[in-house]
Amino acid sequence: RYIKNPSEKLQLIALNFQEYDIDRIISFIKNPTKKVQLEAVEEDGSAIQSIENPDKDVQLAAVKSSVKALQHIKDPDREVQLAAVSAHGSSIKFIKNPDRELQIAAVKSDSIEVIQNIENPDEEMCLLAVKQNGCSIQYIKNPTYEMKLAAVRSNGLVLSFIEKPNRLLKLEAVKQNCQVIRYIVDPDEEMQLEAVKVSGGMI
């Protein structure tokens, strides 16, 4: 603001000044160089909102850095959208009518909340979500038995999200995480055996 035409070196030093957020500092710099723009968004992707007409490289760096960056990019192209959801699945909520490829990339990003940001996900998409992260099952309405089984095999602790789990679900949950035995009322001998196999401390 106060230095006319600061050199790139001064711009980079300013970015490391801790008193202000990166996006605020970059807004103070008139015509920041490409290097400065990249450093800013790599540090905080949301800083892209303070960069006028960021090019593709800057957009890609921003969406990989922050889940919120995509919402600040006007008309992001396919490559930028795909990079965003691949890095942060929850970015899909900033894409209008995402196609199946984008949805799958988002689910594969391993964010447990992604599935709730996909409108009317089909069984295949839901199954993929719980295989990627069992905790996703808490966001799926009326999960199938196959989904429940995949979920506890991914993370035994999600048994608590399953209403009236049967014996096999309990057993698979214990196999995945022996600590689950502590939350099962009257576990049978096989469940107890599986828990002790993993940790003698479960006896």
Mean pLDDT: 90
What structural category arises from helix and sheet content?
A: mainly alpha
Low-confidence stretches: none
End-to-end C-alpha gap: 67 Å
DSSP summary, beta strand count: 0
Summarize the biggest pleated sheet: none
Number of helices: 10
Helix content: 40-55%
Order of helices and strands: HHHHHHHHHH
Overall geometry: elongated
Whole-angstrom Rg: 23 Å
Strand content: under 5%
Explain what the structure shows.
This protein is mainly alpha-helical and 203 residues long. Helix content is 46%, strand content 0%. It is built from ten helices and no strands. Helix 1 (8-15) runs parallel beside helix 3, helix 4 packs parallel to helix 5 and helix 9 runs parallel beside helix 10 (189-198). The radius of gyration is 23 Å and the shape is elongated.
Write a concise synopsis of the structure shown.
With 203 residues, the protein is an all-alpha fold. The chain contains ten helices and no strands.
List the helices and strands and how they pair.
Blueprint lengths: L7 H8 L6 H7 L5 H10 L12 H10 L12 H10 L12 H8 L15 H10 L12 H10 L12 H10 L12 H10 L5
State the main characteristics:
mainly alpha, 10 helices
